[in-house]
Amino acid sequence: AEHKKRPPVIWLHFQECTGCSESILRSTHPDVVSLLFEMISLEYHETLMPASGIQAEETLHHAFEKYKGEYLLVIEGSIPSDNEGFCKIGCKEAYKLLKEASKYASAVIAIGSCSSFGGIPAVMPELTNAKSVENIIKDKPIVNIPGCPPNPYNFLSTILYLLSFEKLPKLDDKKRPLFAYGRVIHEHCERRPHFDSGRFAEEYGDKGHRLGYCLYKLGCKGPATFANCSVQRFNDVGVWPVSIGHPCIGCTEKDILFKRDIADHI
Ligand code: SF4
Ligand code: SF4
Ligand code: F3S
């Protein structure tokens, strides 16, 4: 059957900004058209589907039934736990919908730092006590693809790996695929020779900053951030935050960005 070749995917959005979906839309190899028409069968995605309202609800429940036990569940966004009414889809609380959707999923992919670790919605003052997918789902294989947004190729490569080998890729202790999150970005950063030689930008716009020196003294979290940004880069134009002069803020790490830095700045 067609869906055997193209695994059915149900994609739900909870507390998020849709930046992760936007990131996927901008991939080029494969592009989103090949992804949707050749690789997977996207059964439900609120941003991309034409249906809305009752029609959309019917599509979702039809997909739950038709692909019971087979579908891959992708979650974008965190789940409120203090105020469940804060995020509802089709009049159903996010928490309940996640439980229902994951029950017959073959695996769950948490795309982005919101669903992987709580992300921006979990930053102080934590109005909704936002939870990650793995905080709630304990009985399914889970892959976290953190990043805010994540590199689309880390998601697409995970899908390709699943299609090719019919199993999940090897993960680290935060459930991140090792092929993408196995090393800190500091290892492959083009500013690394400056770090090793003690040449640092001290302030934005100073001589060192303009000369491309290391951004460690501007707060770069590269030495503690596991991700492939310095190798994979973004948007097919070879840039990533550090290459354009901004320190890494550790967006793929559970505790670096979201629990400390932003909270300190509020
Ligand atoms: Fe948006 Fe970042 Fe959350 Fe993705 S991880 S939904 S880009 S806030
Ligand atoms: Fe490491 Fe950041 Fe300096 Fe690059 S800019 S060498 S990642 S500390
Ligand atoms: Fe995020 Fe740092 Fe990469 S902020 S995008 S992990 S360079």
UniProtKB/TrEMBL annotation:
Residues of the full protein shown: 39 to 304 of 363
Protein's UniProt name: Hydrogenase (NiFe) small subunit HydA
Amino acids binding [3Fe-4S] cluster: C229, C248, C251
Boundaries of every Cytochrome-c3 hydrogenase C-terminal domain copy: 181-258
Species of the source: Flexistipes sinusarabici (strain ATCC 49648 / DSM 4947 / MAS 10)
Subunit structure: Heterodimer of a large and a small subunit.
Enzyme class, spelled out: oxidoreductase
Organism domain of life: Bacteria
Lineage of the organism: Bacteria, Pseudomonadati, Deferribacterota, Deferribacteres, Deferribacterales
EC number of the protein: 1.12.99.6
Keyword entries, A-Z: 3Fe-4S, 4Fe-4S, Iron, Iron-sulfur, Metal-binding, Oxidoreductase, Signal
Cofactor: [4Fe-4S] cluster; [3Fe-4S] cluster
